[in-house]
Amino acid sequence: MYAKCGMMMDSRMLFEEIKERNAVSWNVLFSCYTRNDFFSEAMCMFYDMIDSGVRPDEYSLSNILNACTGLGAIVGGKKIYGYLVKLGYGYDPFSSNALVDMYAKGGDFKDAVRAFEGIVAPDVVLLNAIIAGCALHECQRQGIDMLNRMRRSGIWSNMFTLSSALKACASLELPELGKALHSLLIKKDVILDSCVSVGLIDMYCKCDLTKDARLIYALMPGKDLFALNAMISGYSQIESEDACLDLFIQTCTQGIGFDQKTLLAILNSAAGFQADSVCKQVLELSVKSGFLCDTFVVNSLVDSYGKCSQLDAAARIFDECPTLDLPSFYLSYNSLCSTRSR
User: Fold this and answer.
1) Cα(306)–Cα(329) distance, rounded to whole angstroms?
2) Model confidence, pTM
């Protein structure tokens, strides 16, 4: 209870008061630490557990493998897994899932595939881990193959599986498969999930089906910044500047807000549309929101003003921008030089 409320110190104090600790009490603490991203503390507690003479079980070891994943400590994770095998938990599904997830997120993806192939009966959690790893390592085709393997084996995919598959469809520009996944999402009645909706918007935009993407965006009951950025970036990528700017103007009145990614997409569209008035508005927003300290926003402002033939304004932004480190200075300077040479 304390840990779920973020009160880790209180949780630890209660644990210290337990006189006879067993694997269950240690596991509760491990789970609390890993769930709250206190990975180093979880590792230290694990070694304390071993020193105290308590034998870890499969839940202890899967939690510690998750901590190794969070730390990116692949070598340490391999040692933990060796210890796990020694204790006879090598085929435990929880530990197998944690091992594949660790390799997929932080190690050599080939190790993740080898670990996955060594499991006789993978479940949906394990397949989700390997498909997400495919997306992370840009092995999109392999991710689609894993999805097909899941369907052939009779394992029902869940929302997380389909979200990962949508990323693969977007990267490979596979609209037909993306539409098939969309149909499956409708059948599963998870279309209103924000994460999945953003995945669909991104997939349709990258497959040059912006009308379908806009329909998904319009049907979202609670639009958020992620959905807005996906839609605006989609318009910007296909150089649909007017639609991009119109959407941004509409959402400004809805209180969704904006971030660096939003401003960069808008500036890109303003440059293509040669809308210097939009550049001025973005400049004002950047000053008010503090994004004028962002190197990428400054570079984009300089570039966009230049493409709008506003060379004095571009030079002024460069001269008045906050102090930049050397790499950032060269980026902004190159943008200005490029602007003057046009």
Assistant:
1) 17
2) 0.69
